[in-house]
Write a structure and sequence with these properties.
Radius of gyration of chain A: 18 Å
Distance between the termini of chain B: 22 Å
Number of strands of chain B: 0
Strand content of chain B: under 5%
Largest interface: A-B, 32 and 35 residues
Order of helices and strands of chain A: HHHHHHHHH
Oligomer: heterodimer
Shape of chain B: elongated
Largest sheet of chain A: none
Order of helices and strands of chain B: HHHHHHH
Shape of chain A: elongated
Structural class of chain B: mainly alpha
């Protein structure tokens, strides 16, 4: 495939890429870990997002939920990221050429940007929000953007595997 | 012949099953909903069971957290079961021959029964559960749901 950059071709044909792709057990195990860790990363994070929007866990103080949820969500994200890189490595050319995979990367970046803004700026007044049932608009927006972008990441990720279009 | 074979054959021949099977799009779309709902339900299961094990939000009563989580968790359970039935109908004969499917169903029934009896009772009790009971009930509940997930993922691979 000449329209694929050299680095992608190199990944696809490297020992690691070929090894994962052609192993009977490795690909399914890495893939299953990637999918099931969704529960730990996005599944747990979504509860904080719902709390941010005032839609769920309304009785729990926001700063508490944040402090408790984030470490688990972060560990989940790390596992997803590592297994995701390995999966990409084994199917680099397919992923590179897939429109869904590109969409997934874009939504991942959006989720990351949103989280970055929240952690570095919006969060500064989080202790004050505990006093109100519903947090300020900026915080609610952060929750909404997070849920939308992670949902899009999951949909695009699933569609990448099916090679639909 | 297994006594369930006629049932699987009937499922495989239903209108819904055939419609999904004959489309390139329906199966992936339904499976995406299955996966999204799974994320929400398993997330809730993890959060509540971490609390039961004393690893999470210790100053919040278990009962309150369980009540806060349950509307979303129950909705996603309904979506999972509905989409799961549709996926099953579309490939019932494949499932009939699949060991991971059998494992998944065994875990699913065990998880549902445990979740809505013992786990429900412990998390809805006025009195806080003792830590040892919480750890026991929380880890059994998590392992049962985890088994459903692993079995489900394996159907596509084995």
């Amino acid at each position: 495939m000449s329209n694929v950059p050299a680095i992608i071709q190199w990944m696809q044909n490297s020992d690691i890429g070929t090894g994962i792709r052609e192993s009977i057990w490795l690909f399914p195990v890495v893939e299953a870990t990637h999918v099931l860790t969704l529960a730990l990363s996005v599944g747990v994070l979504i509860w904080f997002d719902l709390r941010l929007m005032g839609w769920g866990m309304k009785h729990q103080p926001i700063s508490q939920v944040h402090k408790q949820v984030m470490p688990y969500a972060f560990v989940g994200f790390l596992i997803m990221f590592v297994t995701g890189v390995l999966l990409f490595w084994s199917e680099a050319e397919k992923c590179y050429l897939s429109g869904f995979f590109r969409a997934k990367v874009i939504f991942l970046a959006l989720a990351g940007l949103n989280a970055g803004i929240f952690e570095l700026s919006t969060k500064k007044t989080i202790e004050d929000w505990d006093k109100y049932p519903i947090p300020p608009v900026k915080a609610r927006m952060a929750g909404l953007v997070s849920i939308i972008s992670w949902t899009a990441v999951i949909i695009a990720g699933r569609a990448t595997a099916y090679n639909l279009f | 012949m297994h006594f369930l074979l006629p049932f699987f054959k009937w499922c495989d021949s239903t209108w819904l099953g055939e419609t999904i099977r004959n489309s390139r799009l329906y199966f992936p779309v339904i499976e995406t909903f299955h996966l999204l709902a799974l994320t929400v339900l398993f997330g809730a299961v993890i959060v509540l069971n971490l609390r039961l094990c004393g690893l999470f939000m210790k100053n919040q009563p278990v009962q309150q957290l369980a009540k806060d989580l349950s509307p979303w968790a129950l909705c996603s359970l309904v979506v999972i079961l509905a989409s799961g039935v549709m996926l099953f109908l579309s490939e019932a004969m494949k499932c009939y021959a699949s060991v991971p499917f059998q494992v998944k169903m065994a875990f699913l029934f065990a998880a549902l029964i445990f979740h809505f009896t013992i786990h429900w009772k412990v998390t809805r009790a006025e009195r806080e559960p003792r830590l040892i009971a919480g750890i026991l009930v929380g880890s059994i509940n998590f392992l049962l749901w985890f088994g459903v997930g692993v079995g489900g993922r394996a159907i596509g691979f084995l």
